[in-house]
Amino acid sequence: MGDENIFLFIPNLIGYVRVxxxxxxxxxxxxxxxxxxxxxxxxxxxxxFDGQAARYFQQSTKFGAVLDMVTDRCSTLCLFIVLGQFYPxxxxxxxLLAILDIASHWIHMYSALVRGDSSHKTIDxxxxxxxxYYYTNRYVLFFFCAANELCFAALxxxxxxxxxxxxxxxxxxxxxxxxxxxxxASLPFCAMKQLISVIQMxxxxxxxxxxxxxxxxxxxx
Length: 221
Fold this sequence. Notes:
Layout: H1 10-26, H2 33-56, H3 62-86, H4 91-114, H5 129-136, H6 138-160, E1 165-166, E2 176-177, H7 178-220
Antiparallel strand pairs: 1-2
């Protein structure tokens, strides 16, 4: 048998479809929120499915892990760019969030690959307890990722409309829209997700430092 073409593995083909969905969504982000969200949700569904396909067909690859992570980061970056356009008074905030998201995941991915791990989600059980719990408990991982996405999605929808209005007390002169309510409810967990990203970046930097020290000691010997 000839060499395998990992670029045509089923989970990687699914990854390419996710990239196409992201590119198409970019044309609707600033004008059509419902089409954008439909494309985004389909991309997220495929994100869950490609991992299952990789395990089922035994086609897990480092390229697939990188493709998955890069697609997620590009999706988030596109959303931050649009939110910075919608809320120019908070542009710096979205710039810093984009920097944190890309930097923390990139250095974490690089750290995982130089250690020989198959994925950035492979965590050394002797490592940081926060990251260990975050990446090994699927429910915790899903909750924080979902809350993070919900926070920015609610902020995105708020630009177009307040959504259904809720009056909490009879004298409430300014009812809250559904999107504002969801934004307020998910914001604390979104903030915790950013803290986890900071921890992830620091731990990954330390792991790379350990590898550097070991390699320099080996060269001296």
